[in-house]
Amino acid sequence: MNGIGEALAQFHAYLVTEKRVSTNTFLAYRRDVEHLNEFLIHEKVAADKISKRHLTAYIKKLKDQGLAARSLSRKISTFKLFFRFLAETYHHPNAAQGLVFPKLEKTLPRYLTEPEIELLLAAANCDCTPKGVRNKVMLYLLYATGMRVSELVSVTVDQVLFDEGFIRIHGKGGKERMVPLPKNIIELLRHYIAHIYPKMVKLREGEQHQPHYLFATCHGGRIKPLSRQSLWIALKKVVRKAAIVKNISPHSLRHSLATHLLRKGADLRSLQLLLGHQNLSAVQIYTHLGDSTLRKIYDAKHPRA
Fold it and tell me: Can 286 be counted among the known catalytic residues?
């Protein structure tokens, strides 16, 4: 059979069970490999006959279609992972081993200055409706913790450890980290969970076993986490109210926190641990920092602690 169709299901299972990638990463990998499969079928290339030449031709085709270097780089990463999987599982030659990543222009991540953060949070404070308070809590929490958007929307109520003053975050690859919370954020979360959350999420009898996502919606009696798109829309509204003209995203709050902490003298090791970066070789040298050490650094350096 031409193409790589027979291996797709096994690769999908590998991504979920062994690599434990996030939903968005899984969908991106699946899309990249399925599009490659369409190309190989068109070229009548069997899985065990695929060579670097075929992959290079496909990449050149994408480049000629105007695909950006960063997107090409992501696809090459997918191919390297997939063909390594093929080599280990089916003993096929690793056609992607010699692929070279395109050069990427180094761009600075967009971030807000500390005065702009104050303007943003002040604007969020103006909406006292239940949805407005929820949006405010989301923005405060994003900046206070440096969480990724995917991590924020999947947080459940029981991940907020009020007595310890930490929030437990499930990051990429199933990795868990504990991030300190400023006292004002803890009080904000107490109020939100006690008085606002019940208005946003109304459970029917017998549904208490469902996951209590901290930021949730109800559809047909089923609790679902708030979508990334809803968070994006909420942020854009607050940005307009704050009269901030920068083109920013929810992820910009993560970049803002990192920038502000570094400027205030936080070291890269504690920042790596706080933000939960996926680079294993980098993360491993920071694991000697315990929660108590991180708490001291956070309290001393965080602009809102």
Answer: yes
